[in-house]
Design a protein that fits this description.
The protein is mainly beta and 698 residues long. The protein contains seven helices and 41 strands. The strands form seven sheets. It has a 22-stranded antiparallel beta barrel. The protein has a five-stranded mixed beta sheet with strand order 3-8-9-6-7.
């Protein structure tokens, strides 16, 4: 298709992204019948019953957050079968991985907020403002487990998470709240909603601060280097550097046709976790910002409501700047080229802007069919980088100390400005084959300006065998685009880019079974199998150089099982549990893909007690995580954690008081580190903590 044809489709068709969020339209009648949680729109772009959605989907609502005592997104996603939440030792960032598909930055799960991506082109993953994501302004979270590129394009590889913020219709009046914990975490927020004529408006403001939690790193990579070189530079034992300060602003306005959104997220003075390099860094600080505005217009074009048109435009700016230079190696670190008396320091700054324009057209005039056509354009521009450091590379790729830090933005930048443009088209048909049988098929073509094109398919057959029993048979393909860092990074002492990279690809088969066993008990069983190729891996550079280069060097396959049961007496007691089994095998070395759990068990209970008291508890068990090939350290220890919440409303519901306890048993939970030179004893997670939360509605 030529460029003129592509532009024409941009003006005539639809958007898979804008289709993903909850809307107030004629389908609200379904919500009145089935309830808010029983409906999902992430699977096709239109609301439908969760059990009948042509994908393996899950939903959590703000009611769940309160009942479970959840305050942050990483806690909420732990309640999703097949989705594992771990922590990166860099920036202490939460990583969301599905079904055994692993990466250091977890870019295989596409994260959306109100249907728009929360990604940076630099990393291909969520941006650095993600150190924490509070739930005070979240109405619901919708999750697809499995490939989503036929609807959402790049990076919807192993799953999609759409965070739907509260709009004016979700808020009544004002809410002010504060939370303070014994582990130096505190937050205050204000939520407001009002109706102005035809417009429903909402606003949200939150200010937070995270102090350092005392998680001890007893041995780091520099300590191992000291033992080899005879130096004494390591700062271990020392604590994880996990400080940060937060500012969140969210504004929205909606009427029957328009949805206007504005969002600003800032995380200042983010600590480096256990260090960006292979050594503890108690000094380095990073600030990340994201500013985004979007407008969506939707209209029914005919009196029979057969034609529906939707347009969306969005613009965002992301930046990552270094407040205080990152210490890659501490003072006294020794290399063959000399000693770094002030440590090896780096200062990479990144500035991005993104523009999206899209439209979709839906037609439901054919009997038993609903057709969606879509097209869009995206412009991803990493328009400025800055490189300040106190070293440079010699001809062998070994760092040489140069004394005081200097500006190398022109001489030896870590990354030059980059730009990537994308055009896409997609089509989807929902076909009611016969009573109880529905077939959803879709195809999407993405054309990139730098690495080429990718076409992805989906087929989903859903059979409602009885009112209480549903079967799903699914097939889909997906891809992950190389990030700018993977493709174009240069002069990096850790990982260097490769402009010849191709996208990663996956094909997946899934089967699902949902049974409403009784009025109180619902059960779900899902099976899946997938194959991946062209996986982007970091491959060690030949000696005597240091560091690695990204290559399409991996192939893998996996299979798994997800089981879920929910018992709800509809009055005062709810029990739920899920078990996930996953086995992913690296085809190159015929070993399990490392670091992710083969088994996970999750239990949850909620009790509405006497006199408006509510008790919530959740237990999370993680079992059997493999080490990497040729990593001879002892097996990674299993762990289980228990969280409790106690909540009560006062003064006719205008005051809400909660006591929140996490990791009640103070389990020594650790996430695995790469073999074995960075954190030989792995990365410790947070210990026991309790928080007091109070909010007032007026």
């Amino acid at each position: 298709m030529n460029k003129s044809g592509m532009r024409l489709l941009c003006l005539l068709a639809t958007i898979p992204i804008s289709a993903a969020y909850a809307q107030h339209d004629e389908e609200d009648d379904l919500e009145k019948v089935y309830g808010n949680k029983a409906l999902v729109s992430i699977a096709t772009g239109s609301k439908q019953q969760l059990a009948l959605a042509p994908a393996i989907t899950s939903v959590l609502t703000s009611r769940d957050f309160q009942a479970m005592g959840l305050t942050d997104l990483d806690q909420a996603l732990a309640a999703i079968p097949g989705l594992h939440v771990s922590r990166s030792s860099i920036l202490d960032e939460p990583l969301f991985t599905m079904r055994g598909i692993s990466h250091a930055l977890a870019p295989h799960v596409l994260l959306l907020q109100d249907g728009l991506p929360l990604s940076m082109s630099f990393t291909g993953s969520k941006n650095t403002t993600w150190v924490d994501y509070p739930l005070n302004n979240v109405a619901r979270i919708e999750v697809i487990r499995g490939p989503g590129s036929a609807l959402y394009g790049a990076d919807a590889f192993s799953g999609v998470v759409n965070i739907i913020t509260k709009k004016g219709a979700d808020k009544k009046g004002f809410e002010a709240g504060l939370r303070h914990s014994n582990d130096k975490r505190k937050s205050i927020w204000l939520n407001a909603g009002a109706i102005w004529g035809d417009w429903a408006t909402a606003g949200y403001l939150r200010i937070g601060e995270n102090g350092r939690r005392e998680r001890l790193i007893d041995v780091d990579g520099q300590l191992l280097r000291d033992r080899q070189s005879g130096s004494n530079a390591s700062l271990a034992p020392g604590f994880v550097n996990d400080n940060s300060r937060a500012l969140d602003i969210n504004l929205s306005a909606q009427n029957q046709a328009w949805t206007l959104l504005f969002d600003f997220r800032q995380r200042r003075d983010i600590g480096t976790g256990a260090g960006v390099g292979p050594a503890l860094d108690p000094v380095g600080r990073i600030t990340g910002e994201m500013l985004r505005a979007s407008a969506r217009w939707k209209a029914v074009l005919d009196s029979n409501a057969h034609w529906e048109l939707e347009w969306q435009a969005a613009f965002s700016k992301n930046k990552q700047i270094i407040n205080r230079d990152l210490v890659l190696y501490p003072p006294g670190a020794r290399f063959p080229t000399g000693v770094f008396p002030n440590g090896m320091t780096g200062h990479p700054d990144v500035f991005e802007r993104h523009a999206l324009l899209s439209a979709h057209l839906q037609y439901s005039g054919w009997e038993n069919h609903r057709l969606r056509l879509a097209s869009g354009f995206e412009d991803h521009h990493l328009y400025e980088t800055r490189t300040i450091k106190n070293y440079e590379f010699n001809a062998l790729g070994i760092p040489v100390p140069v004394g005081q830090a200097r500006d190398y933005s022109l001489k030896q930048p870590f990354l030059m400005p980059q730009r990537r443009r994308l055009h896409y088209v997609y089509a989807q048909d929902e076909w009611n084959l016969h009573q109880g049988w529905n077939l959803t098929s879709g195809i999407r073509h993405d054309a990139y300006s730098d690495f080429g094109a990718s076409t992805n398919l989906r087929m989903a057959l859903v059979w409602a065998a009885r009112r209480d029993m549903t079967f799903k048979f699914l097939y889909g393909t997906a891809f992950r685009a190389p990030s700018f860092n993977e493709a174009y990074s240069i002069n990096n002492p850790v990982n260097r880019g490769n402009p010849a990279l191709r996208p990663e690809r996956i094909s997946t088969l899934e089967g699902g079974f949902n049974w409403q066993a009784t009025d109180l008990l619902q059960t779900t069983v899902n099976l899946y199998a997938y194959r991946m190729k062209d996986m982007i891996l970091s491959q060690a550079n030949p000696a005597p150089g240091i560091g690695s280069t990204f290559q399409n060097a991996g192939r893998a396959h996996g299979k798994g099982l997800e089981m879920e049961a929910v018992w709800d007496n509809k009055r005062d007691w709810r029990l739920s549990a899920h078990y996930s089994y996953q086995r992913a095998i690296d085809d190159v070395n015929q070993r399990p893909i490392p670091y992710l759990p083969q088994h996970r068990l999750y239990l949850r209970t909620e009790w509405q007690g006497w006199n408006q008291w509510r008790l919530g508890a959740q237990a999370n068990g993680v079992f059997k995580r493999a080490r990497a090939a040729q990593d001879n350290r002892p097996a990674i220890a299993n762990y289980h954690t228990l969280d409790l919440s106690l909540r009560r409303k006062f003064a006719h519901g205008s005051w809400d008081l909660a006591l929140l306890l996490t990791n009640l048993g103070n389990a020594d939970a650790r996430d695995p580190s790469s073999a074995p030179g960075v954190l030989p004893n792995d990365y410790p997670l947070a210990g026991r903590a309790f928080a007091l939360e109070i909010s007032h509605h007026f």
